[in-house]
Design a protein that fits this description.
29% of the residues lie in helices and 17% in strands. The protein is an alpha+beta fold. β6 and β7 form a beta hairpin. The chain contains 20 helices and 29 strands. The strands form ten sheets. It has a six-stranded mixed sheet. A four-stranded antiparallel sheet has the order 14-21-17-19. Among the domains are: 38 residues; 251 residues, no CATH class; 101 residues, no CATH class. The protein is globular, with a radius of gyration of 30 Å.
Length: 727
C-alpha cells in the first residue's frame, strides 16, 4: 500500500470511529480509537527486510530481522528501522502463521518494479511477464506459512495455465492442493472494476501425495445474491477429483518433448539435425504480436479448474488418441533467420545442416504494419473478423499484397510460400468460445488476427473440429486468457493437441467429407433464411415496438411495464419459450429436471401476450433467436423489437424457415459427426452421452458454439467489440 492509500484508509477508519461514538466520555473514546488506527503505507509485503531464504543479503547477519539490522549502506538502500515494527515483524517472520489469506495485486511486476535484493529472493519464480501475484503466492507459501498451515488466495485464472506461472506451479505442486474455486462464470463480479478472471486457491503446507483429493468448486451466476451484495457459495457446483486428474499433462501422452519440439531428424548423410524449440511465431522480432510470445502461451503443466469427476475417464480415453501435431507439415529455417526471407521445404544442397532448424509450417497471418497495403496485381488481404467453417469471407479486402516479405512488416505464415500443398492449409480464428477452423481461402492472404496451419496430408480439419467431442476436449483443456462473455484465446500450441483418428484412409476421409457437405449445406441454407429475416427486421417499413404504442392501446400486445422481466443476475441457463394460446412463456428446468418458470425480479413468470397470430409468430421467432445467442428478454429488448409493416408476410417467412429441413438436417448431420468422431477416438456410448449432456446442462458449455455462417451478424458484432484484443 502506498502512503497516499494509507492516508485514505486512516481517514476512512477515523470516520468509522467518529460514527461509533454515541455516548459516554467522547474524548476518551476518541483517543482510544485514534490510537488503534494502525495503518501504515509506503512499504511492500514483498520486501525481504534483509533476510533471505537463499543467502544473507547483507554479509554477516542472518535470521529474523531486528531493529539493529541495517541496510548495506549503499546509497538509496532502505534502513530497516524506518519501517513500522509491526509491519516489519509481519513481513519478516518466517513460518510464523498458521493461516495466510489475501488478495494480491494482479499486475505485471514491470508496473511495480522490485529492487535487486527482491529479484534475488524471487528468482525461482521470476519469468518474463510474471504477475506480482506470483511473487506474493511464493512468499506466502515458502516464507510466511507455518508447516501444516493453510493458505487462501484469490489469484488470476491465468496462474493455473500460463507459461509465466510454471515455476510457481512447480513449487506449489510440492504441497497439498485443498481446493480450487473457479470464478470465471461470474466475470468480474467478485472484484468490481478488475478486468481479470479469478480463482480461489486453498493450499496446505504438507507434502503432496498421490492419494490427495482436490475439491473443485465452480461459482455460477445463480450463486450471486444481488439483494445482499454477496456470493452464496452454498449454490456453487462442487466436486472432488484425484490430484492427478487436475493436471493437464495426464491427458497429453508424450507431452514435454513431443509437443515442445519436433523430434531430431537425420539427413541421408547421417548428419544429425537438431530441431528447434516449438515457436509458432518463429522469430524473436515478432514477440510484440498478439499472444505470440512463448510466455503468453498455455503450458503443458496447466491445472484444469473446471474438471468434474465424471470427466476424468472420458479425458483419459481421449488421451490415448493420436494428435493433430502428427500431421502438421514441417519445414526448415536458418537458425539466425529473419522473416523477411522465405523458408524451405528441405535444407538446400550445400548448406551445413547445423545452421538449420525444423519448424512446424504454421503461424499467424501477415503483419502489414500499416493501415493498408496496395500492390498492383497482388492477392486481396482480409482481416477475417468472421470466419465460418466453409472458409467464405463476407467482408471486403482492406488491401492487396504481392507476397514479397519486403513489402510488409512480417510475412509470418506466408514466408512458407511454396512449402507443401496450399490445399491442405487451414485458418484458425482463435479468439472465440470454440476455436474456428476453416479452409484457407484460395488466392488470398489473411492478417495476424488469425493463424494458419498446413497439413502434410488430406484431412477435413474444419469439419472434424465441429464435433462436440472435439469442442468439449478443447473447452476442458485449452481455455486460456479469458476475454469476456465466455470468449477465450486458443493459442497455436494448443491446436496441435486436438485428438484425431489413428488412421486416415480414403474411405474415412470421403465419409467425413460427406458429413461435412451436409453440415455446410444446411448452414448455408439457414444463413440465406437469416438474410431474409434481417431484411424484414431492418426494412424501411419496420418500426421498433416503442413506436407502435397503438398495439398496446388496441389490446394486441402486453405493455412492457406489465411484464415481469428477469433481473440482471437471474440465471436463465438453458431457458426456452413455449407458446400457450396468445401467451409466450419463458421456462427453464429446475434441479429435479422439471419444467419451471424462468426466474424474474418479481417472482412472477415472464409472459408476453400477443393476440395477433402473425405478430405472435414473428415475436416468438425473434425471442428464440435472442435465447440462442445467450441473451435474455427485457424491457429494452421489447422496446427495440422490430415490428414489420406486413406481419402476415413476416409470419409466412418464419413458418417457411421453421418448417424447412435445414435446421433438422444440421442437427442430424452433427449427431452423425459426433458418433463417427467418438467411434474413431475409442469412446463408449456412455462417454459420448456424457459429452452431449454437458452441452445441454453445463452453464459454460451452453455458450460454446461454432461461428456458423447463419450466425454471421451476431459473431461479427461480437468480434468487432473485441477487435483490439485480436489486432
Amino acid at each position: 500500500m502506498n502512503a497516499f492509500s494509507a492516508t485514505l484508509a486512516q481517514i476512512q477508519l477515523l470516520w468509522h470511529a467518529l460514527a461509533a461514538v454515541v455516548e459516554g466520555d467522547t474524548a476518551d473514546l476518541m483517543r482510544k480509537a485514534i490510537v488503534g488506527l494502525s495503518v501504515e503505507g509506503g512499504h511492500s509485503s514483498l520486501s525481504t527486510w534483509g533476510v533471505s531464504a537463499h543467502k544473507d543479503l547483507f554479509g554477516g547477519t542472518a535470521g529474523r530481522a531486528s531493529e539493529e539490522i541495517r541496510a548495506h549502506g549503499q546509497g538509496g538502500a532502505r534502513r530497516l528501522r524506518t519501517a513500522d515494527r509491526k509491519f516489519r515483524d509481519l513481513s519478516g517472520r518466517r513460518g510464523g502463521y498458521r493461516i495466510v489469506a489475501g488478495n494480491p495485486p494482479f499486475v505485471r511486476f514491470e508496473r511495480a518494479p522490485i529492487g535487486p535484493e527482491e529479484r534475488i529472493e524471487y528468482a525461482p519464480v521470476l519469468k518474463k511477464n510474471t504477475d506480482l501475484s506470483v511473487l506474493f503466492a511464493f512468499r506466502a507459501m515458502e516464507w510466511w506459512l507455518a508447516p501444516n498451515g493453510r493458505l487462501g488466495f484469490f489469484l488470476p485464472l491465468a496462474l493455473s495455465e500460463a507459461s509465466y506461472a510454471e515455476p510457481l506451479r512447480a513449487i506449489l505442486a510440492q504441497y497439498r492442493i485443498v481446493e480450487i474455486i473457479d470464478l470465471e462464470e461470474i466475470g468480474n463480479v467478485a472484484f468490481h472494476g478488475a478486468n481479470v478472471v479469478t480463482i480461489g486457491l486453498v493450499m496446505e503446507k504438507t507434502a503432496a501425495t498421490a492419494q490427495d483429493q482436490i475439491k473443485i468448486t465452480r461459482v455460477t451466476p445463480e450463486c450471486l445474491d444481488e439483494e445482499h451484495g454477496r456470493i452464496d457459495m452454498t449454490k456453487a457446483i462442487t466436486d472432488v477429483v484425484p490430484r492427478s486428474a487436475v493436471l493437464l499433462e495426464r491427458y497429453l501422452p508424450g507431452s514435454g518433448a513431443d509437443l515442445r519440439a519436433p523430434p531430431a531428424e537425420t539427413k541421408a548423410d547421417d548428419e544429425t539435425v537438431t530441431a528447434a524449440p516449438d515457436h509458432e511465431t518463429p522469430s524473436s522480432e515478432d514477440s510484440d504480436d498478439e499472444a505470440a510470445s512463448e510466455d503468453g502461451e498455455a503450458s503443458d503443466s496447466a491445472w484444469l479448474t473446471k474438471i468434474r469427476s465424471a470427466d476424468v475417464d472420458v479425458l483419459d480415453a481421449l488421451a490415448a488418441a493420436r494428435r493433430l501435431d502428427d500431421i502438421i507439415l514441417r519445414g526448415w529455417t536458418k537458425k539466425a533467420y529473419r522473416q523477411k526471407t522465405r523458408y524451405e521445404a528441405a535444407i538446400p544442397n550445400g548448406e551445413p545442416a547445423v545452421h538449420w532448424q525444423q519448424q512446424r509450417v504454421m503461424g499467424y497471418g501477415v503483419k502489414v504494419g500499416r493501415k493498408s497495403i496496395e500492390n498492383p496485381g497482388g492477392r486481396p488481404v482480409y482481416k477475417a473478423k468472421h470466419l465460418p467453417p466453409d472458409g467464405s469471407l463476407p467482408e471486403e479486402p482492406f488491401g492487396h499484397w504481392n507476397g514479397d516479405p519486403a513489402e510488409v512488416d512480417t510475412a509470418r505464415f506466408y514466408a512458407w510460400a511454396g512449402v507443401g500443398d496450399e490445399v491442405n492449409t487451414f485458418v484458425v480464428r482463435n479468439i472465440a468460445t470454440q476455436p474456428v477452423f476453416a479452409p484457407h481461402p484460395a488466392n488470398a492472404y489473411l492478417t495476424n488476427t488469425v493463424y494458419c496451419i498446413r497439413l502434410s496430408e488430406r484431412f477435413p480439419l474444419n469439419i472434424w473440429s465441429l464435433s462436440r467431442v472435439v469442442a468439449w476436449f478443447m473447452a476442458k483443456t485449452a481455455r486460456t486468457s479469458v476475454v469476456q462473455g465466455y470468449f477465450t484465446t486458443f493459442y497455436p500450441r494448443q491446436t496441435t493437441r486436438i485428438p484425431i483418428p489413428a488412421e486416415l484412409d480414403e474411405a474415412l476421409l470421403d465419409e467425413l467429407d460427406e458429413i461435412g457437405r451436409r453440415i455446410l449445406t444446411a448452414d448455408d441454407e439457414l444463413a440465406r433464411g437469416d438474410t431474409e429475416i434481417e431484411k424484414l427486421r431492418s426494412g424501411v417499413s419496420s418500426r421498433p415496438f416503442r413506436n407502435r404504442l397503438d398495439l398496446v392501446a388496441n389490446g394486441i400486445v402486453t405493455a412492457p411495464k406489465d411484464v415481469s422481466w428477469p433481473g440482471a443476475d437471474a440465471n436463465w441457463t438453458g431457458a426456452r419459450l413455449l407458446v400457450d394460446g396468445a401467451d409466450i412463456r419463458f421456462v427453464t428446468t429446475d434441479a429435479d429436471g422439471a419444467e419451471a418458470p424462468a426466474p424474474t425480479e418479481t417472482g412472477q413468470p415472464t409472459v408476453i401476450t400477443i393476440t395477433d397470430p402473425d405478430l405472435r409468430e414473428w415475436a416468438t421467432s425473434e425471442a428464440r433467436s435472442l435465447l440462442a445467442r445467450g441473451g435474455r428478454p427485457d424491457r429494452q429488448w421489447m422496446g427495440t423489437l422490430s415490428i414489420p409493416d406486413d406481419p402476415a408476410a413476416a409470419a409466412t417467412l418464419v413458418r417457411r424457415l421453421r418448417e424447412g429441413s435445414a435446421e433438422q438436417e444440421l442437427a442430424a448431420a452433427l449427431d452423425s459427426l459426433d458418433r463417427k468422431v467418438a467411434d474413431l477416438l475409442g469412446l463408449t456410448d456412455g462417454q459420448l452421452d456424457h459429452i452431449r449432456d454437458a452441452f445441454r446442462t453445463d452453464a459454460m458449455l451452453l455458450h460454446v458454439r461454432p461461428q456458423w455462417k447463419h450466425r454471421q451478424s451476431v459473431v461479427t458484432r461480437d468480434a468487432s467489440q473485441r477487435d483490439g484484443a485480436a489486432a
